Amino acid sequence: MGDAYAALMSRMKEIETVGQIQGLLGWDQEVMMPPKAAPLRAEQLAWLSRTSHSMMVETSMGDVLAAAESEGAGDEVAAGNLRLIRDAYDKATKKPADFVERFARHKSKSIVSWAEAREKNDFSIFRDDLAEMIELNRELAEYLGYDDNPYDALLDIYESGLCVAQVDPLFAGLREALVPLIAAVGNCESPDMSWINSHTWNEEDQAQLSHGISESIGFDFDAGRRDKSTHPFCGGANPDDVRWTTRYDEAEPFGSLYGSLHETGHGLYEQGRPRHLDFQPAGHADGLGVHESQSRLWENQVGRSLAFSEWALPHWNKHFPENMNGVTGEMLWRSVNLVEPSLIRVEADEATYNLHIMIRYEIEKQLINGDLAIDDLPDAWDDMYEQYLGIRSSNHTQGVLQDIHWSMGAFGYFPTYTLGNLYSAQLLLAARHDLESTESLEEMWSRGEFTPLLEWMRSRVHARGSIISPSDLIEEATGTSPSPQPFIDYLRAKIERLYGIKA
Amino acid sequence: MGDAYAALMSRMKEIETVGQIQGLLGWDQEVMMPPKAAPLRAEQLAWLSRTSHSMMVETSMGDVLAAAESEGAGDEVAAGNLRLIRDAYDKATKKPADFVERFARHKSKSIVSWAEAREKNDFSIFRDDLAEMIELNRELAEYLGYDDNPYDALLDIYESGLCVAQVDPLFAGLREALVPLIAAVGNCESPDMSWINSHTWNEEDQAQLSHGISESIGFDFDAGRRDKSTHPFCGGANPDDVRWTTRYDEAEPFGSLYGSLHETGHGLYEQGRPRHLDFQPAGHADGLGVHESQSRLWENQVGRSLAFSEWALPHWNKHFPENMNGVTGEMLWRSVNLVEPSLIRVEADEATYNLHIMIRYEIEKQLINGDLAIDDLPDAWDDMYEQYLGIRSSNHTQGVLQDIHWSMGAFGYFPTYTLGNLYSAQLLLAARHDLESTESLEEMWSRGEFTPLLEWMRSRVHARGSIISPSDLIEEATGTSPSPQPFIDYLRAKIERLYGIKA
Q1: Which site in A338, B83, B246, B371 is 20 to 30 Å from B176, CA atoms measured?
Q2: Would you call B222 an interface residue with chain A, using a CB distance cutoff of 8 Å?
Q3: What sign has the CA pseudo-torsion B487, B488, B494, B498?
Q4: In sequence order, which residues have a C-beta less than 8 Å from that of residue B285 and are 6 or more positions away?
Q5: Where are the domains of chain B?
Q6: Catalytic residue among A263, A270, A299, A310
Q7: Inter-chain touch B37–A237, beta carbons under 8 Å
Q8: Among candidates A1, A6, A2, which has minimal Cα distance to A279?
Q9: How many CB atoms lie within 10 A of CB B61?
Q10: Cβ–Cβ below 8 Å for A237 and B41
């Protein structure tokens, strides 16, 4: 690669540095900031965002990028960098400045009306702002461009290259398998949860349990932190400074532990990024879907396995000797795997979760394409919950108003959650193929040996950064393109074992 | 004021925003950052510093500033802003870029050799780097310019307008009064410290004690934080986000409490800044000397008064019921006021502290002016300690190598510590004149009424920002120019009372 490429990468280093600072300030805002500091913090974040945006869209950036592209292909890293920078540059420059401002202003406004509508259980308060947000997203799709479907342009924002033609069959496969599976569980007896509800779970002990388990799995606390926040997340600045959070409920200990495992999965991915690509776009994680595959892997496929529960039991006993009296690894395993259709996505179990996402995907697609009118939305929502999960919300707060995403203008984001679940099952299957020559992964986990699986993810996923696109990465690592089948197989086997049914 | 002034203030808002972000990242680095994150944090801070510097020195900045100056005087705030911006612009542009880089590079190098020299008690390891640092500071003085004495240019960096002609008489007055006073104490019996040394002082209880007392004095924890760090400091982003730290020693509780009172004093000043001048230079605190006056006021003149000890005793009792058994307010007061010549500045008491500073001031002045050769420095140091404090260090680690300042190239900084002590005594005297119509401030403090004194400081000092220069501010608030006499009177009266002597 030549001089133009070098000049381009030097510009990207500055933009990346601003991004790292934004990451820290965002973390601080959620975790440390005193309440009165919010308005001036917004000024700081706005300045960073303006500065980073101007660096990306200035005319000379387009010139340097074009010059670097014309210098020729280079290696796969350079090709990856050029692909990612071109994508970011186009996305940043295709939107007129006045549109960006209108969008930002409407976002601030509609987050407020959504919050009020949700609190008062009154969809009409949010209706007009949502309608305008849908219009703005259609306008956005036109600026960004698409081949078949305007919704494709929105999907592509959150997972590079994603489109309806790819996502439709994934959800169709899921729907076909999951709906009857979940219905079958409905006729079974629920696991015993009384040992949880009859005790108090001290916050500090929960924190120590989560911390120790996160460390056992491989999170490096010399290059990261654990803290408490209202909304759990994984953020920070860079692979040496990865900060995840959790929250606590003294009435039950699973929220904090499995939330911690989830954020630990995100954190491991960040800590595993290829360090020779620091400050380069190709050195970043490969989009939201792959990120979610790493969090879901450790949260669900590892963390909710019987082997893991048996390994973790002594840790539970150490921190909660009285509460855990008489609880076996199997009881623990059954309790953390309760399958039960519910109205609220963020509380949904591993089996029903993807139906929540599927419903949002279908609705978004129809809203953007004009196949569903805004006034028909609340009923459409409830009808789909009834059809697929067999339950119906009695109010909009627990229905169509539950998620913040649409008020923020994020249409096309939800599907990445399900992609993560599908990818994680594909990746685990491929890892088994490579690692299970003498014993199963479960046998390793039951002894606390998580390193082989982590090392596999490090080399096949983390170390690859975003050199190639997410779907290429999954195909390279697993030998198959994105597919729902491994997830369906995994879930069916687990549920059959848990509930003693043949589904 | 006209368009140029408005354009200038808009530029300053950006520079100020960067400064706020630097404040947060600096705090995070000391308090929260995981150890491996240090190298990339340095990149983030370097970018912020480069960005802020370029905004200040770009040619158009000089043009806008000159145009704003030619628009005419405006009100006192505009005049203050113009004075401060001109000063900052000149200081930033008078130094050639290659000098700034040489200085920064040598600073990194000599901090390392200083640390090694200090650890190994070997001045020769630091000698050459210190000699070069002195040369660099002479070069800096030439760039910045001065009337009489090169050292004036350096003093002016840390306290606008300060010069040898002002500082010499202050230290002369102090020296004349303090040396015999401290010598007289040497013949007296020391207070009983056994109740401290015979107990362990639990860290969490110390933290709660400090927190409660800081809050009682007036620190707003909705606009700030208290945390723990190796080196206590007060930082943060702005008046809504003021963050101070302390450290703990379970062998004695005064370090954390009086450190907390000190940082609370800095924090109160920050929280009291004039909010209509947000993002304007004139809205900032008025330099290091006035800042130190606020920390010293609450730490020493309030915090080490008998009235304060009597008010605080129930708080001590609440957090340390066993340790405080039999301890009276007067015993507490005597213990926190132990006067004892010592070798280490940062551990020095209220009476001897300013002699430590005076010694550094005299030495710096001679080093910069070429009146003291680098190889004579260690002996000169020890001789002055013997002459003024009656003690001599047996090694350089506890002598000339104890402070980090010279390795960082900070010549001219030390005097601001003493200015703070002098200003605080002047300010307290003026406040007494205004507030003590029916009862003394001590009577108010003994009931926990700190608001009258804080409100006085708010209106006379904090709310004035840096609209006028530090020495003008002191004169405006107290009616007299900077002087050592109120501090000497205060200290003599206190020591006579504590030790029952007539000095």
Answers
A1: B371
A2: yes
A3: positive
A4: B269, B270, B273, B291, B462, B465, B466
A5: 1-93, 194-328+416-499
A6: A263
A7: yes
A8: A6
A9: 20
A10: yes
Chain A residues touching residue B28 (CB < 8 angstroms): 24, 28
A28/B24 touch (CB, cutoff 8 Å), yes or no:
yes
Sign, CA torsion B268/B273/B278/B279: negative
A26/B84 Cα distance (integer angstroms) = 32
Is A436 a residue of the active site?
A: no
- In order, the DSSP letters of B120-165 are HT-HHHHHHHHHHHHHHHHHHHHHH--SS-HHHHHHHHHSTT--HH
Distance CA A490, CA A181 (A): 12
Q: Strand B234-238's sheet: what is its strand order?
A: B224-228, B241-246, B234-238
B298, B268 contact by CB (below 8 A) = yes
| Cα separation values, B255 from A65, A110, A407, B399, B485, Å | 57, 51, 51, 22, 28
Cα torsion B353, B356, B358, B361: sign: negative
Among partner residues B18, B37, B240, which is closest to A241 by beta-carbon distance? B37
Residue A498 tokens, joined = 């848990």
Q: What is the DSSP letter of A24?
A: H
Write down the ipTM of this complex.
Answer: 0.92
Q: Which of A28, A33, A237 sits opposite B40 (nearest CB)?
A: A237
Query: For residues A30 and A247, what is the distance between their CA atoms, to the nearest angstrom?
Result: 12
Question: Given B16, B263, B310, B350, which residue is catalytic?
Answer: B263
- Report the residue from B20, B34, B48 with minimal CB separation from A241: B34
Are residues A316 and A483 in contact, defined by beta-carbon separation less than 8 angstroms? no
Compute the radius of gyration of chain B from its Cα atoms: 23
Question: How many Å from the N-terminal Cα to the C-terminal Cα in chain A?
Answer: 56
CB-CB contact of A155 with A167 (8 Å): yes
pLDDT in tens, A47-92: 999 999 999 999 999 999 999 999 987 899 999 999 999 999 999 9
Average confidence score pLDDT of chain A: 95
Domain B194-328+416-499 in CATH 1.10.1370.30: yes
Strand partners, B244: B226, B234
User: Residue for token digits 């009064």?
Assistant: B177
Q: What is the pLDDT of residue A72?
A: 81
Which tens digit of pLDDT belongs to each residue from B385-428?
999 999 999 999 999 999 999 999 999 999 999 999 999 999 99
Q: Which residues touch B180 (CB under 8 Å, ≥6 apart)?
A: B503
How far apart are alpha carbons A424 and B175 in whole angstroms? 74
Planar angle of CA B247, B248, B253, nearest 5 degrees: 125
Walk along chain B (503 residues) in steps of 10 and give the mean pLDDT of each run.
93 97 95 95 93 94 97 90 96 92 91 94 97 97 95 95 95 95 89 94 98 98 96 96 97 96 98 98 96 98 98 98 97 95 92 96 97 97 96 94 94 96 98 97 98 98 97 97 96 94 80
CA distance B320 to B327: 11
